[in-house]
Amino acid sequence: xxxxxxxxxxxxxxxxxxxxxxxxxxxxxxxxxxxxxxxxxxxxxxxxxxxxxxxxxxxxxxxxxxxxxxxxxxxxxxxxxxxxxxxxxxxxxxxxxxxxxxxxxxxxxxxxxxxxxxxxxxxxxxxxxxxxxxxxxxxxxxxxxxxxxxxxxxxxxxxxxxxxxxxxxxxxxxxxxxxxxxxxxxxxxxxxxxxxxxxxxxxxxxxxxxxxxxxx
Length: 216
Hints:
This protein is an alpha+beta fold. It folds into 2 domains: 4-107, 2-Layer Sandwich (Fusion Protein Consisting Of Minor Coat Protein, Glycine Rich Linker, Tola, And A His Tag, Chain: A, Domain 2); 118-214, no CATH class. The chain has helices at 26-33, 38-42, 73-84, 119-145, 153-166, 170-185, 189-200, 208-214; strands at 4-6, 21-22, 47-55, 61-68, 89-90, 100-107. Helix 4 (119-145) runs antiparallel to helix 5.
């Protein structure tokens, strides 16, 4: 395992001398580019996500991983933001590119009716997200393989019930497309296509035109 440097790049205004720095500062970058993920937004989930990453001498992120997360879609957004920062880092001469840097990212919400949520409500939502990941993957795999595997009608009926139980309705899928379009404006084509393909693999054609345009 490579050496690890805890670099408090974010939110505390603290930098380590002669260490990589993001042009304009990571806090400003995150504020400008953050797309608060839908599940955590709807359930008022906040907290700290630690992302480990490595930079080459050009300031490009060539490795990134969730070191410590919350266990919801906030983890994926923190990882996306670090990847989006690739090429924007100022790397000092002699930087050890095998060094694992740690960026602690804090996600906070103001408004959205979160004052009505109790701590127990939020913890329950986090637990539900973790337990629902397997069910979400079952839905995604069904539609990914639908054209190549012969499913019985009752199997698709079960998947439709599961989708409804998980809350993946048309309104949710449209919001997911909106998130993807915001990411396109940030020049994050990979992140956008992940959103568009999620919609497709939920059995919807709402994102098909965007997939044809951006994700081939």
